[in-house]
Amino acid sequence: GVLHEDLRLLLDTALPPKRKKVVLGVGDAKMGAAVLEELGVQCQTGGVVAELMRGIRLHFPALVRGLTAQSAAKAQLGLGHSYSRAKVKFNVHRVDNMIIQSISLLDQLDKDINTFSMRVRSWYGYHFPELIKIVPENSMYCRVAKFIGNRRELSEESLEGLEEIVMDSAKAQTILEASRSSMGMDISPLDLINIESFSRRVISLSDYRKGLQEYLRSKMSQVAPSLSALIGEVVGARLISHAGSLTNLAKYPASTVQILGAEKALFRALKTRGNTPKYGLIFHSTFIGRAAAKNKGRISRYLANKCTIASRIDCFSEVPTSVFGDKLREQVEERLAFYETGEPPRKNLEVMKEAVVEASEVVAEVKRKQEKKEKKRKKREKRRLEALAAAAEETAENSVMETEENDVGAKKKKKKKQQQPEESEPEPEENGVEEEEEEEPLPKKKRKVMAEPEQEEEEEEKKKKKKKKKKAAARDSEED
């Protein structure tokens, strides 16, 4: 209802000052109402105005100076991109696109696993045909076929492993007895390897399907908790997928939700003037199956009404909760009991009052938890910033200290360089005298005096040695 400022400025500058009798042609009725409310200018919409607007858009580059066809095309492309971006921009935790893709994949996996399991049955049935009647379930049959392999190698030692797979000791004993008296043909090791490999692939697909179902359940509890609590995760996801989005499903009336998924039967009935279908996808819920044949149409209409309310609550509530879904489910249960026993159900006003009180408490609790998480996050962020600031200060101080040390070192080096030439100069007389006394060499006469006693001692030792040799030689000659 409020006109955009740019459009207001454009109209103020483009329209003449006396604009009371001016009639403005606008392509959109809502825009015309907004212009009339804000500016008091009468606006006209209709077929002629639409054609004029189309002509203006077509020849816009020729009507505006400086605007080329290429730039106009770029502007239109950018507008289209921004519009599409705004259409697909949702909250990350409440995106229903993931639900649509996962339920489609789940349905496709069901078909593929069923087909592959039948292929394993027909392939392994040539070797062990009696196993099909003993183990009718597809995934369990693939596991048993992979475990047994060649039936001739099955013995009493394998009973424990069979019991773990089939979860029944009597059934495991029956499989063992049937393998001993089977009428199946023998199989080569190469064929057996291929059958085991294919069975392994089918088992892995079955395990992946279980994980995908858990993922779908978690996403539905986030996006549409009330709808999933009312009708189940799988049926609710199918309704969202068939409608295209949760918003589209919320816009549908209850009569459309009731026959959603039965469009072919509806158009066929309208064409042949027959009975229209009573239910579509909601037939897979447990309520319609539990109702009597004469009450199926009534309970499907009532259930479609409650599904519409639940989808609107999920779509437009700020904090999605499953309180309303639980209350709506109780209402459907009471309506079923009313059809069977005649016990009057509670009024819708009373149930919704209770649901509003409980939902307000749940929302308050959720908001309190979110505030706590936000406070913790802010504290962690503050601590992280303080740690970063402290680290930055430490690095700055270290850099300052290093620069000061470098400056001090440089100053010391300069002082040493300045002191070295001063040290080379002659010092006071006392130091000079001492150094001269220490470094002054001895005269030659003193050297001779110091060397003479040493030489005399050596000569005396030599004389003594010679005397000893002579005495020894004399003794030797006397003995001879």
UniProtKB/TrEMBL annotation:
All copies of domain Nop, residue ranges: 223-341
Single annotated GO MF: snoRNA binding
Keywords from the UniProt entry: Nucleus, Ribosome biogenesis
Compositionally biased residues, Basic residues: 463-472
Database matches in SMART domains: NOSIC
Annotated source species: Zosterops hypoxanthus
InterPro entries noted in UniProt: Nop56/Nop58, Nop_C, Nop_dom, Nop_dom_sf, NOSIC
Cellular localisation: Nucleus, Nucleolus
Family to which this protein belongs: Belongs to the NOP5/NOP56 family.
Function: Involved in the early to middle stages of 60S ribosomal subunit biogenesis. Required for the biogenesis of box C/D snoRNAs such U3, U8 and U14 snoRNAs. Part of the small subunit (SSU) processome, first precursor of the small eukaryotic ribosomal subunit. During the assembly of the SSU processome in the nucleolus, many ribosome biogenesis factors, an RNA chaperone and ribosomal proteins associate with the nascent pre-rRNA and work in concert to generate RNA folding, modifications, rearrangements and cleavage as well as targeted degradation of pre-ribosomal RNA by the RNA exosome.
Residue numbers spanned by region Disordered: 390-480
UniProt key word Nucleus: yes
First-listed, main subcellular location of the protein, grouped into a coarse class: nucleus
A GO cellular component annotation in the UniProt record: small-subunit processome
Superkingdom, natural source: Eukaryota
Quaternary assembly: Part of a large pre-ribosomal ribonucleoprotein (RNP) complex, that consists of at least 62 ribosomal proteins, 45 nonribosomal proteins and both pre-rRNA and mature rRNA species. Within this complex directly interacts with TCOF1 in an RNA-independent manner. Core component of box C/D small nucleolar ribonucleoprotein (snoRNP) particles; the core proteins SNU13, NOP56, NOP58 and FBL or FBLL1 assemble stepwise onto the snoRNA. Interacts with NOP1 and NOP58. Interacts with NUFIP1, RUVBL1 and RUVBL2; RUVBL1:RUVBL2 seem to bridge the association of NOP56 with NUFIP1.
Keyword flag Nucleus: yes
Protein name: Nucleolar protein 56
A GO biological process held by the record: ribosome biogenesis
Biased composition (Acidic residues): 422-440
Lineage, highest ranks first: Eukaryota, Metazoa, Chordata, Craniata, Vertebrata
PANTHER family per UniProt: NUCLEOLAR PROTEIN 5 NUCLEOLAR PROTEIN NOP5 NOP58, NUCLEOLAR PROTEIN 56
Pfam families in alphabetical order: Nop (PF01798)
